[in-house]
């Protein structure tokens, strides 16, 4: 049996580095793997980026104002590109093959421990949110005493198999677990390509609806700048930061994707191509979402596709958008789960053989994580506030603070003055914006609680 490409890289790593990178399956079907392609890597990284955040971006941009909002999307993309490039340079300099290995090289075991915790909490929170939204789309939900029907209830009526727990259980057993059984991230390239295509379907439909309503004369002028009526509205602007940050977090999957490349010199181009693709989707979604719904746009724009759109075939288009988005999240789930499993295994079993070579450990970690996500999606009363705090803390840490801290430490001497200056600026902005966002969320939450009690 020949060693997979990722294991060859492990030989060059320092002995104390734990690199929980994916390996190939040892069956005949995948035995001839000689590296992933450029296109497959772009689809996998793009799918990691475009998750549930796409639906929250239009409301965030509306709150910031169209011009500042679009500028912030581009700035976040540029900062993300810089942080990943810094991470890759230090990866090669330290001869590591994982994100945690780079942090271990710079800040030792303590730094690695906190990074793994951040990735685990971030990915776990994202997966719970994905499963909740999937349940909302297909099975419906209750909000403030009002029931919103799911797509399946509207099509087939209420059935036992369309209830949230049963439906999510069936999706977990017949979709999530089979897709999570792959030992190599490149095996998800086709589902990732379909996931990106489904996200583009939403953009195309939103664009088409906007054009139709524009010629009907029912499109209003959007707010180009933020509406600041009082101090609260100003501080509320900072609550958009976690949404913008979460929309670009993909750092935890950069190394698994690079480790499987046929030619690792293409990784920089893969990162830039993925970011350009996702930024284009984000900008189009934000512009046409705001033009289409104006001030009536919901925090989750998917909620706007639950009524009359004022165009022919409105019900059909609503269903297409909701189903395509639900399927999109179903296909995003395994790529995020892949990274979650690797990093949890790296935290629990730092000195064990690669996870893909231990079937019992692979199955154990997979089943435990699936069970936690399933329980969280079905029985946790409210995860939205927790997700906002995760976005303002762990997501910012994984995407920006850790790469910037690695560049500032520069124990390998590869960071330029520009890198260090940018890293210092990123840390200051990340910590300050995160703190303000958390305080603003707490203030808003306390006000809602007070009003509810009153």
From TrEMBL:
Pfam families, alphabetized: Aa_trans
UniProt-annotated location(s): Membrane
Gene Ontology CC: organelle membrane
Topology versus the membrane: Multi-pass membrane protein
Gene Ontology MF term list: L-amino acid transmembrane transporter activity
Residue spans crossing the bilayer: 41-61, 67-88, 109-133, 165-182, 194-215, 235-254, 275-294, 323-342, 362-380, 386-409, 421-443
InterPro entries the UniProt entry points to: AA_transpt_TM (IPR013057)
Region annotation Disordered: where it falls in the sequence: 1-30
Annotated Amino acid transporter transmembrane domain residues: 35-437
Keyword Protease: no
Keywords from the named record: Amino-acid transport, Membrane, Transmembrane, Transmembrane helix, Transport
Location, primary (coarse class): membrane
PANTHER family: AMINO ACID TRANSPORTER, AMINO ACID TRANSPORTER AVT6A-LIKE
Protein known as: Amino acid transporter transmembrane domain-containing protein
